[in-house]
Amino acid sequence: MVLTRSLESFGNYCMFLWRVFGVPEKWREFFKRYMSEIYKLGIDSIPLIVIVSLFIGALCTILIKLNINNPLLPRYAVGLSTREIILLEFSSSILCLILSGKIGSNIASEIGTMRVTEQIDALDIMGINSANFLVMPKILGLITILPFLVVICMATSLFGGYLICVLTSIVDVDTYIYGIQTMFIEWYVWFALIKSLFFAFVISSISAYYGYTVQGGSVEVGKASTDAVVMSNIMILLVDVILTKVMLQ
Predict the structure, then answer these.
(1) Among 58, 118, 151, 216, which residue's beta carbon has the most beta carbons within 10 A?
(2) Pick from 27, 39, 211: nearest CA to 119
(3) What is the DSSP string of 113-131?
């Protein structure tokens, strides 16, 4: 029963995406909405990203220093380990898990409210492909802006580690800087950026699907927002495992 329901939902999701990725009827309106979604979904998230990244970078530095305080390890290991954790996981996977709560619930509740207030039905009656009109700018907008947010997260997290070194002297500043420069692998940055493209699609498309297919009233919209965030998080973790196995083996 559960398998049948899951397959049915996946089929409806694929049919929904088929409607979403059509040719826009009015390119001018599409680009207007596209730029609006970039600002709403991406630029508005920068303060949250900066605050979280600063604290995570500082915490990573402190915890790594406390747990590898071994005279046999080089002193720059703290900076090196902090950099690897941030580049490989936090700046892409953990960040997207955090953003799915903000962006995913926003998309699902916005489209869900339009569904229950019959605004989507009005678009369909006018002959407009409502899925394409409402959802495609959100998906492409998030895919466009999320890699830039990941870069901001990387820089801010490393700066957070640097800041805690300056304020507490838990690690010598020069040693920390040397550590984040030592044995740098450029592919790890590209790996995080590539993952962010997949995560952006997962968050935006799944959240839009749950909002677009909601039935009922305000209570159902709230439930759809919650379900969208939960499913987005599960799929982010699944995609993360697959991409890590494929791209880093």
Answers:
(1) 58
(2) 211
(3) HHHHTTHHHHHHHTT--HH
* Cα–Cα distance for residue pair 28/30, rounded to 1 Å: 5
Task: Report the alpha-carbon angle 222-122-12, nearest 5.
Answer: 55
Dihedral sign for Cα 35, 40, 44, 49, please. negative
What's the half-sphere exposure (Cβ side, CA atoms, 13 Å) at 46?
12
Please identify which residue in the block is written with the tokens 């039905």: 121
Q: Would you say the pTM of this structure is higher than 0.70?
A: yes
How far apart are the C-alpha atoms of 130 and 164, rounded to whole Å? 49
Report the run of H or E that residue 167 belongs to, with start and end.
helix 130-168
pLDDT (tens place) for every residue of the chain, 249 residues total: 667 777 888 888 888 888 888 888 888 888 999 999 999 888 888 999 999 999 999 998 888 888 877 777 788 888 888 899 899 888 888 889 998 888 988 999 999 988 888 888 888 888 888 888 889 999 999 999 999 999 999 999 999 999 998 888 888 888 889 988 888 888 999 999 999 999 999 999 999 999 888 887 878 888 888 989 999 999 999 999 999 998 887
Distance CA 47, CA 239 (A): 26
